Fold these 3 entries.
Entry 1:
Amino acid sequence: MPVTVFRIDDRLIHGHVVEAWVPHLKTDEIVVVSDEIASDPTRRMIMRFSTPEGVGLKIFGLEEAFKYLSGTPAAGNILVLLPGLKEAADMISRGLKIRSLNIGGMHYSAGKNFSIGKAIFLSEADRGYLKFISGAGVELEGRGVPTDKPIDLMEALMQ
């Protein structure tokens, strides 16, 4: 399946994704890429209950996700959700081609002292991942929902 959007959002499947991104992208399948979620039956079940009717859901750890997303494309649109920049950098390091990456929500926590926009808080490690991802030729944008004006993340990092 062609991947329509790769999105970083630490909440993964939630209201903005279900009510805005899925209809906007005409998503046929959501792929959640998280070793933590993939190994937690309760959290997998919550993700399934949160997925809109008629939209497929796959939950993979990083290795499985890489194999799946590197495989033969099928019909439909995929929305790939990753909980953080580390996972995106890992997928790129393994050789996955990502044309663009949407950063939707990286909420404040200890050590995340650099903010961009309303919902993107970065640690020093996150800033390094962004630079790595950008250096791999990936277009980066910050945007919570499709109707928001995109933020140029690399420009914001330089300020």
Note: Strands lie at 3-9, 29-33, 56-60, 78-82, 100-105, 114-116, 120-122, 139-142.
Entry 2:
Amino acid sequence: MVTNKAIFFDRDGVLIDAPIVKGLPKSVKLLSQVKICKGIEKFCKFYKKKYFLIMVTNQPDFSRKKNTKKNINEINNYLKKKFKLDCLYTCFCADNKCKNRKPNPGMILKGQKKFKLDLSKSYVIGDRWKDIGAGKKAKCKTILIDKNYNEEMKFKPNFKVKNLKKIYNIIK
């Protein structure tokens, strides 16, 4: 019986602060721009004992020629090391039909396969509807960190919080 479980994190807006442009978060371009979200280091350390920690991130700036894979991978590898993440998945596509681009669940399903996860006991933590959509489609529990972005929520999260601290009451 599969009992492995994971917490899947979005990158920009959950692990690191994302600059807000016209009411929506944008990806940072360089490692020097990375600002760690308040409390996330402690959070990862706390849950590392019972959960696999996996980052799933859309980074379409590469295919839109607004950033390089080198820069994106440098940021991702830094975060993997800093938070002791078990794995990270990046979708570089701007094509919404790509199975890995959130709200599609491809990256989560890769994690499921690699770590033999029970997704019904796993969580997706995100700050946008696309994160919640990917989690819902993969049958994970979903937690939205509500930052009042200027966008319609196309998927309803299982839980909605204003900050990371509130999640400790949800994930036991």
Note: The first strand starts at residue 6 and ends at 9.
Entry 3:
Amino acid sequence: MTRLIAFGCSHTYGQALPDIWDHKKNKEITTQGPSKYAWPQILSDKLNLECINLGSPGASNKEVWFHIVNTEFKKSDIVILWFQYYNHCQKLYIYQ
């Protein structure tokens, strides 16, 4: 099965979305992993692909790159990178 593998920061992870953030206590629910409401999961569901969300809240571009070079890819994988520059300009790259 083709996998959609997403790398990025809190936008990719889905930080503060309702399934991983307790808004009443203003506290993260840390045992859940990435949000099922984050864009990688939504896109994977629409395309009927397996989702591997490797986003990490607060990740720098250097950390994202570290995860990329240490991931074992399959030939059929679709890889999406969400980089954030200077907290105001975001770039999206798609590789297949």
Note: Residues 39-47 form the longest helix (9 residues).
